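Sat 14:20. Reprocessing the chain from the morning session after the first attempt stalled halfway. Input below, unchanged.
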Amino acid sequence: MNKKSILYLILIVIVATLLRLWHLDKPEGMWNDEYLTWKIANAKLPTEFFYALKSNCHAPLHYLYLKLWMFIFHDSDKFLRLSSVIPGVLGVIVMYFAGREYKNKDGESTALTAAVLCAISSFLIYFSQEIRIYSLLFFITTLVLLYALKIFNNPSKKNFALYSLFSVLLILTHTIGFVFVVFSTAAIMTFAVSKKDKGNFALYSILGVVLLALPFVPMIVNILVKGSYFSQWWAPFNYSRTLFTITDIFSPFLYDTFHVYNTFADAFYKNNIVNLGFLVFAVIPALIGILCFINGALNPKRMQGYLLCTVACTVLTVLIAAIAGKIVFTTKYLIEIVPLVTLLAADGFASFKSKGFKIAIGTLFIVLNMFYFTVSNTSAVRLVREEGQRLPVLALSHMDIKKNDKIIFLYYPKEWYFKYIDFNNPENEPYKTAASINKYNYSAYFVGKNWWRGYLHKNGKKMFRPLFLSFVNEGFNSGLNKDAFNLLNKGDRLFIVDLTSVSFFPENVVKEIANNDIIYESTPLLYLAMSYAKAFTLNKAHNELSYMGYYNTGAWRVYVFKKA
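Finished this time. Tokens:
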């Protein structure tokens, strides 16, 4: 590593850091998954913390990391997001060394290209600002990749031991990370370890990875084989959407976090009009990335075989599970393949023989990515999580809520807003006494019993269909009276806080869907349930109270009613 390369790497790291720090503080606050992450990490050791881990679907390492981070620093949103910035930047550095290792330590062009691609990746930048597992997961995966490549060049005890260590950490970070580790390990054994250099320590190290992965197998099998209607709960599989994985990885347009289009065709061509913005900023960078990836994949190397097999087998496994309706096919669940795909693309770019061609496509790729990143309102750092829980709190804070007013929160439990509420102010008492018809307890209103979520995911469609068809529900009506309507006196107001992104079906549409077997089967239960809850609650409010209007903020709508 010469001085020139060191200078280039330092500049790349500076750029990567600045891009990840830009707009780090999000005015909308944490959204659903971020709040859950913070809540688990914030639970008291040992009982509450490990109970929270047990009830969650993700592995524990990131929560332990975040708990340590909060102990050292602070749990403000900005500091929590900083916990993702650091592993995101470290991953860029590791990718440089992975590029050198891929070219037997003399491929500076491949190494620097890999670092640049990761540094400016909108996909990686976004998750470097989110309070979730994915930035740490990316960093650990780059370490797994680095030591997998080191095994090809030098199958030493140290390299096998470190590969095993980081593979275990990956499994402990991502619930389905064992899929990547299993295929990565199998590919190493196939492409790297020949008979003469297959030492006992190497085999024991690989066996150790497998054994440490075994405890996660029953949980994964339960998800994949005895599924609880997971994808049908909120996002059924669509073949066309798999193409967005390519644009997520190579372009600044992030479908994975900005769900605007139902299909890839809708994004590209709709109402007889070509979407030039999507064509220029999503399709063109993706095509350049694919071209470089294919060129890298054509290089005849054992390491190339390892990368291709690991990527293909991992994607295929997740794809099959998604088609079966057990998990959702989304790019963030495949973040383990991003370092491998990026490395092949970087090597493919470096391998083009025409310097002029490389300059042309390299410049075009960087300009398109950085222009969109810096200018667009939907760039990785400006992309607003419209479900952020600070938004409705800010809206309500400007509505002069009185002590006897009532609030009904739809979709999230009321406690999820408390991080942004100052309870030293006595006027905030209505938040504590608010009712909450949310995705965890809605069945208690629908049928008078709070069913286990797994049971609802599997049987909810059948249970609630009669309710969706009739909108006659005395139990729901009684619950609303008990928790809100009967507590209002003359002049008191009722605020109904709705998350419009999950409750967009009007009453008549809910009935139409429930009356059609094919459409009903393909419509996620989440949207039907929360649309029903909103429509039923608003119907009752309109019938019994005076309507004062509503206020929109992000994906939230706050309806205001008054007791005459």
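The chain has 27 helices and seven strands.
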